[in-house]
Amino acid sequence: MTAADLAAVLAIEARAHAFPWTPGILADALASGYYMVVLVQADEVLGYGVVQIILDEGHLLNITTAPQHHGQGLGRQLLAHLIQYAHDHTDTLFLEVRPSNTRAVAMYHAAGFNEVGLRRNYYPAVGGGREDALLMAMAF
Ligand SMILES: CC(C)(COP(=O)(O)OP(=O)(O)OC[C@H]1O[C@@H](n2cnc3c(N)ncnc32)[C@H](O)[C@@H]1OP(=O)(O)O)[C@@H](O)C(=O)NCCC(=O)NCCS
After folding, report:
1. CATH code, domain with 80
2. Mean pLDDT over residues 85-99, rounded?
């Protein structure tokens, strides 16, 4: 991902998430040196992912595919790439996910992540209030 991809990424982010990353968060992430990739087909950005490395731990901060292309295997493909990157650079890859996000949870289980904890009231919830986060991890 480069600055040239930001508009396309933000457009997908706004459609795919109830609480999307802002342009500022995305620009900061890019400036921070996180591993950030876009999945491109026929010159069109269809998905992206972000991994932060802290010492020997990787953190999957974002994985998103364009809503009109969900269920076509793009998420699985993107995740496999990010896991390979984390495998090459870290000992463990962590992520947080909303338990209500059954599609993402199923994808992570299928990829080999284990549920290792719960973070109480981690996310803002639609309609107010908070939602827990499921903490998942894959050890290499
Ligand atoms: C989660 C997300 C990245 C998956 O991307 P995708 O391109 O739809 O994923 P794929 O088509 O590769 O499917 C991957 C797996 O997701 C699960 N999945 C896909 N569609 C599903 C559905 N309708 N119901 C339940 N599980 C589903 C399956 O486990 C699937 O693997 P399989 O095809 O081997 O059964 C995508 O839905 C997305 O961008 N969601 C919004 C952003 C988000 O929630 N990101 C994760 C935050 S932690």
Report:
1. 3.40.630.30
2. 98
